[in-house]
Give the backbone structure.
Amino acid sequence: MSNLEQDPNEIRCGAESGGETEVLAGRAVPLGGPRGMSVSRTLPNAHRRMIGAWCFVDAYGPEVAVMRVPPHPHTGLQTVSWLLAGEVLHRDSVGSLQEVRPGQLNLMTAGHGISHSEESPETLLHGVQLWVALPGADRRTAPGFEHHASLPVRSGPGFDATVIMGSLGGVTSPATTYSPLVGAELAVEGSAEVPLDPAFEHGVLLLDGEVDPLEAGPLLYLPPGRDLLRLSGRGRVLLIGGEPFGEEIVMWWNFVGRGHDEIVAFRKEWMEGEGFGAVEGFDGGPLPAPILPGTRLRPRGRVR
Ligand code: MN
């Protein structure tokens, strides 16, 4: 057993009893392809793996680029596609063909297995790609897709919040969720006081403009126990949060599972063309899965 993995419980208690915020630095990840994009990945982070059920946060742009993500599989999660600029075309194996534009939500529930592709023309792209882990009771649900062309807004002092997922200040998104959570885009103007659910932990990411106390790039983590988020300035901010996720999960490539053998089986099914349906109409072949690591994948909790 390595030192890092010696006693995750001790780290978990320390982080919560202190009640301190954390700055989670992003790392640049190239998505590949000609004129392809680089994304800033702030979840999972080396130390903090999840915020509520949110387990993956990629932010990209604004930059002129082409998005071209060939058909690939997912299990055990929801993908949340949210744009500030540009347009992305989604195709999936349950027959969906749906463009998403700024202010709209494309939500894909992988359940026991789905595959999809994403593509854009060469255009100014700015957005986030988020994953929500499904709880054990729902992770094998039927795959599905939802497009929400308009979402409710919760306004308050110094802000207008578009509620993308879950609830904020009594306003609830129509999108399907499987655990108590929030995902919102906050338009901040002046001194904002945003209501938070104190049962939730939260993450706050600056999307554009200048908003104190945020800096461009990293995700600010707020532990449970806060009922207010104070921001000031002018700009747009992503707010995610949820009840701390109690289950340990394995995240590998595009799969969320619960153990090594399950991930191996997901990979085998994908490579053999089983279990994930087919994406119609994408100009190109599916993405092959990477090679598995030489060691067994281990389930991890929300902090490492
Ligand atoms: Mn995907």
